[in-house]
Amino acid sequence: MSEMYDAIVIGAGHNGLTAAAYLGRAGLRVLVLERRTMVGGCAVTEAVDPIAAPGCRVSTASYVASMLRPEVIRDLDLPRHGLRMVPCDPGVQIALPEGIVVPWWGNSERCRAELVRYSARDADRFLELDRELKSLAAYLEPFFMEPPPDLHATGLKRWQEMWRVLRRFHRVSGAEIERLMQFLTGSLGELLERKFESDVIRRLILANNTYGKHGGPYQSGSAMGLLFHLLSGGEQQAQGFQGHVIGGMGAITQAMAAACRSYQVEIRTDAPVAQITVRDGRAVGVVLENGMELTAQAVVSNCDPKRTFLTLVDKNALEPAFRAAVECIRMAGPAAKVNFVLDREPEVRGMPATHTPAQRSFFTLVPTLRGAEDCYNLAVRADLPADLWVDCVMASNVDPTLASAGRHILTCFVQYVPYRLNQGTWDQRREELGDSVVCKIGEYAPGFADSIIARRVLTPLDLERIFGITEGNIFHGDLSLDQLFFMRPLPGWSQYRTPVAGLYLCGAGTHPGGGVTGAPGHNAAHRILRDLRK
Fold it and tell me: Dihedral through CA 445, CA 448, CA 449, CA 454, nearest 10?
């Protein structure tokens, strides 16, 4: 049995839905195929434990909206389809062992008043750094919503590519270029030690930097996260935006799915793809695991590059050298999630009594710079660190619809943890990780363990199994300088096309990378539309 479409999108994660919506809006007949029973990929809202805690839901994997592109929100009219985001303020807040809670307020003067308690000199330098980073991030912003420079272009196209890059930087000074390169290639730890004397302020900045990527704060390129987290997001295009999504992160992808349907895009769940069909060097459709064949002018994979090329495409359709390069993409996800249902809100020592519930919704248990480096090095050696870095969000403090009466939702992002363990397996040690997180939170919020009604631990292996992301890497490949921009996913293949004609990538493994941004899906769709018009 065969059906014909203009485009088939594999995977209903947020980038797949974004690409499908743009293609559908352009008038194409589009089909989205999702292996799970629900759309959303890693941006989903699900029950933690429907038996122990009925009516309690959590953002299972992705847990906060930071860089969701304003263009995508506007173009797909996501608010009309139900999307509502509440800005987080403070957007970052750390709890320290001494019983101190330090918020990073959005208002500069309010933030300075908070930080001057620890160092007046550092408080001023903190605001200077914030202003400088926002200025430099603004130069990178336009590149998020367009393909990276095509270094392999020739003739007139080559000159057009050079002009596209140069016009973005025509106002940048030489000093700004130097600083931009320092942030893109430098060590965060060395930067913070050089610039700040207060360990408290160093840890506050560290808490907003290296999420989900490989490398401790002293490794080259670790300062890059400072720039990325100050790119714009949200409907109002605010730099450094962080937002709680009402209804959990699944509300983003539900709104995207509704936008797709408004453009007559067909979405099928419980429809796992077994193979991408390639004939005479061109992708012509897919075969589902149930044997159904579907054909299309374009096949668009929202899967990560390894799953796409090493699992879905027959090895004979690719050059051995290309497959070898794909195999070398660094994945090995370094992060885990632990989700809780509680019978009361954790009482974090030092949390200001004047804080509203929304202001208490964020608290990060972040180690020192050296402690974070040690934690990463242990994970690299396939050991489970004892002193974990845990980012906590009390989602029900902002959105009470997530929890039933008398219940509270806490979601925790944990790094650094190894994908493979030296001793035992994740199936054997999964709950050990959960216990470590409970103990860690209990050090800052006494009695936390007694408040737990239900919990769900998601190791990197679980993220791979549940969401189909190779090695549990939430970014579909590490966000390091040698795997970004025109190097993503591989040198020579950064334009969303692949060596197989008619096959495109639209996921986080392409430029500009991971996070719930919608940018890869947007950029891939526009590339496909240009190619189909030709």
Answer: -140
